[in-house]
Design a protein that fits this description.
Blueprint: H1 2-11, H2 15-38, H3 43-71, H4 78-99, H5 102-110, H6 119-125, H7 137-148, E1 156-159, E2 165-166, E3 170-177, E4 183-189, H8 193-214, H9 221-234, H10 237-250, E5 257-258, E6 271-275, E7 280-281, H11 285-291, H12 295-313, E8 315-317, E9 325-329, E10 335-339, E11 345-347, H13 350-365, H14 368-377, H15 384-392, H16 396-400, H17 413-422, H18 424-433, H19 436-455, H20 469-476, H21 485-503
Helix pairs in contact: 2-3, 2-8, 3-4, 3-8, 4-5, 4-6, 8-9, 12-19, 12-20, 13-14, 13-21, 14-15, 20-21
Length: 504
């Protein structure tokens, strides 16, 4: 710690920056225990909470301060700025790895924001997609015994020691049900994740207040609201099972979507037992090549599935990162998309879907007045131009030029990232303004674009909502009983116009 402080103070030339560093660092270390104490946590975890909160607070202040200090006057030196971005990102990523839990989940999302953050942050945080912490087998068996009420060998005749995959909140093991011989995947919550989730929520709220003190232009109320609203849902595996069954019911006639069956006799709030599905991750191009799976077909399927979810069903899976999306061929040789992890869903109101449909109509046609009108309806106000760029992953010039329905419309990631660097405070303000149901759609868009970035050449990539519009029409134009006539009329007209715009 001391070498860092001395090195920092030698570099500082501006008294205001020095004061901000010292004040912010002191505030993070001193106020963290007070903040945690006021949260009224149980005595058993208060020590861990203080440690995690202090670590996170100090790291954020240190990273932000060093960035300001080291980049002053050198903003035009691209190579130097890239090195500073990388070191700053690594500092924060290391803290996320040590803290684990919710910090891993947030870090994984940062690793998907190719179109919003400098490439150095995306590259560093992508590591967290493959390095989530895992629980010991002893810990897993303890949770299973506690939840199911019997020893593990009385329920499963086989239970693999090595997990199939690990995530921030749980890990999954292959097993065989003793009574039926059915091969299953058992998702087991990490033993301390419930307690750590309380700590992490407090810590993120603390960090948001800390950033607000140091940099008032940044607003993170939206993040706090999202965490408090969504984390309890993701920690309830009974709710996750119900979400999976509801999606399966909505997509009964969709042969290319597979949702694992839930085995309720072996499912609790902390254990989820489901059908075991073989397949490869959606970003595993080598697996797809070996299995003869066309990546363009997969992209089309994803477009149809998620367009149907958003515009027709009003019920959307909000965590489609590559680990939650598998591809396979079924017993009849048909290519399928397998959706896993159904813990986080968003239900969309009719009014919202109409406005969002019309917003996309404006984006695809380059109609700035329509974009402005619908953005105001969605609560964005004067930031409608920036909001449009965030939704479409295009610059404003590209959107209002030929429109996104133009077959020649290409994604310039470099320009988007450069513009995003200069507008991060404004982006945080936009996220504070938009309806909370839109936040998860934006997250879903980011994750799907990350998949597209792998499946397609980056410079010719188009949004999941516009890449295969003509191909999605047959799915979207079918009458849906759950959609009101007023909404359906609006959607049908909207989609029909897109079809003609896209194919002209």
């Amino acid at each position: 710690m001391r070498p860092f402080i001395f090195k920092t103070l030698r570099i500082v030339r501006n008294n205001k920056v020095k004061s901000a560093l010292l004040l912010g660092g002191t505030f993070s270390i001193v106020s963290a225990p007070v903040y945690v104490y006021n949260a009224k946590l149980s005595p058993q975890i208060i020590g861990t909470a203080i440690s995690r909160t202090s670590r996170a607070g100090w790291t954020v202040v240190k990273a932000a301060s060093l960035f300001v200090i080291n980049t002053r006057g050198r903003e035009d030196d691209a190579a130097y700025m890239s090195r500073v971005h990388t070191s700053t990102a690594q500092m924060i990523c290391d803290m996320c790895s040590v803290n684990g839990g919710l910090f891993i989940k947030i870090g994984q999302h940062i690793g998907s924001l190719d179109y919003l953050l400098p490439k150095e942050y995306v590259k560093v945080f992508k590591i967290l997609h493959n390095e989530a912490p895992h629980s010991t087998l002893k810990s897993v068996k303890k949770v299973l015994t506690s939840e199911l009420g019997v020893e593990i060998d009385q329920v499963f005749s086989e239970f693999d020691d090595v997990p199939l995959g690990c995530a921030s909140l749980a890990q999954v093991h292959r097993a065989v049900i003793k009574k039926t011989g059915k091969e299953v995947a058992v998702k087991v919550q990490h033993s301390m994740v419930q307690e750590h989730s309380k700590i992490d929520t407090i810590t993120i709220e603390f960090l948001a207040k800390l950033v607000d003190k140091v940099i008032p232009e940044f607003q993170f109320d939206w993040l706090i609201d999202a965490i408090k609203r969504n984390l309890p849902k993701e920690l309830d595996f009974v709710q996750e099972g119900q979400n999976a069954e509801h999606l399966s019911m909505l997509f009964t006639d969709c042969e290319f979507l597979k949702v694992p069956k839930i085995f309720w006799d072996y499912t609790t709030r902390r254990v989820l037992t489901m059908e075991y599905c073989r397949g490869g991750k959606v970003d595993d191009l080598q697996y797809m090549k070996e299995q003869g799976i066309d990546k363009n077909v997969i992209l089309g399927y994803l477009s149809k599935i998620f367009s149907q979810m958003i515009f027709v069903r009003g019920y959307i899976h909000c965590d489609p990162h590559p680990g939650n999306v598998l591809v396979q061929k079924d017993a009849n040789g048909r290519t399928q998309v397998v959706l896993l992890d159904h813990g986080l869903y968003q239900t969309l109101t009719d009014e919202f879907r109409v406005s969002y449909c019309k917003l996309w109509q404006g984006l695809l046609k380059g109609d700035s007045e329509q974009i402005k009108k619908q953005s105001y309806k969605l609560g964005v106000g004067k930031h409608y131009g920036l909001f449009a760029c965030m939704v479409a992953s295009r610059t404003w010039e590209d959107i209002t030029g030929s429109g996104m329905a133009d077959a020649n419309s290409e994604l310039d990631v470099g320009r988007l990232q450069e513009q995003a660097k200069a507008q991060i405070p404004e982006i945080s303000q936009v996220l504070n303004f938009v309806p909370r149901q839109l936040l998860l759609i934006l997250k879903t868009n980011d994750l799907l674009r990350g998949i597209e970035c792998t499946l397609l050449e980056r410079n010719t990539q188009v949004s999941v909502h516009s890449s295969t519009w003509p191909g999605t029409v047959y799915t979207l134009l079918r009458p849906i009983n759950s959609t009101s006539p007023r909404v359906w009329a609006s959607q049908s007209s909207f989609i029909t116009r897109i079809m003609f715009a896209s194919s002209s």
